[in-house]
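> forwarded from #structure-qc
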């Protein structure tokens, strides 16, 4: 299971990307747990969008255990309507 950090912000972007890349190399079925996410900024939303896009492009299976309302709220505020991300977070 890949756990998203409590803060998914520009300050954590590089660290998050590196952890995801390492995890994706070693797992075909990706289960994402967002229960710890408390803070997300625009870069964080872009990161999870790029994460989902990347994982699907390399044919990884994704299961998202989406419980963090902060992610859904941020997606709505940014006006994201047509995105592969929405099928996972049910925004």
């Amino acid at each position: 299971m890949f756990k998203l950090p409590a803060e998914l912000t520009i300050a954590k972007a590089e660290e998050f990307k590196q952890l995801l890349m390492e995890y994706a190399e070693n797992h075909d079925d990706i289960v994402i747990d967002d229960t710890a996410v408390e803070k997300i900024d625009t870069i964080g939303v872009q990161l999870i969008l790029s994460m989902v896009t990347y994982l699907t492009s390399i044919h990884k299976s994704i299961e998202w255990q989406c419980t963090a309302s902060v992610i859904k709220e941020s997606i709505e505020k940014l006006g994201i309507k047509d995105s592969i991300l929405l099928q996972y977070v049910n925004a």
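QC bot note: Helices lie at 13-26, 42-57, 69-78, 86-89. The first strand starts at residue 2 and ends at 3.
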